Amino acid sequence: MSNPYLIELALKHFNCTQKELAQRLKVSATQISKWKKGEHMSTDMETTLCTLR
């Protein structure tokens, strides 16, 4: 299950672009876009995103 709002929250929290968030997470900017649209995000990635500083 994916929560597109989690990506939006991270973008606002870090005041960054999708590309910058992708770099922090070591994924492509395209993947960030897919998650924003509701595509599945692994539990591990959700955990990584929630613990990102």
What does this structure look like?
It is a single chain. With 53 residues, this protein is mostly helical. It has one domain. It has 4 helices and no strands. It has helices at residues 4-14, 18-25, 29-36, 43-51. The longest helix is centred in the first third of the chain and has 11 residues, at 4-14. GO terms for molecular function: DNA binding. This is Helix-turn-helix transcriptional regulator. Residues 7-40 form the HTH cro/C1-type domain. InterPro entries: Cro/C1-type_HTH, Lambda_DNA-bd_dom_sf.
Q: What's the domain count?
A: 1
Helix content: 55-70%
* SSE succession: HHHH
Instruction: Report the average pLDDT across residues.
Output: 92
Give the uncertain stretches in residue-range form.
none
Radius of gyration: 10 Å
Strand coverage percent: under 5%
Overall 3D geometry? globular
Q: Quaternary arrangement of the chains shown?
A: single chain
Measured distance between first and last alpha carbons? 23 Å
- How is the biggest beta sheet arranged? none
Question: Which class do the helix and strand fractions yield?
Answer: mainly alpha
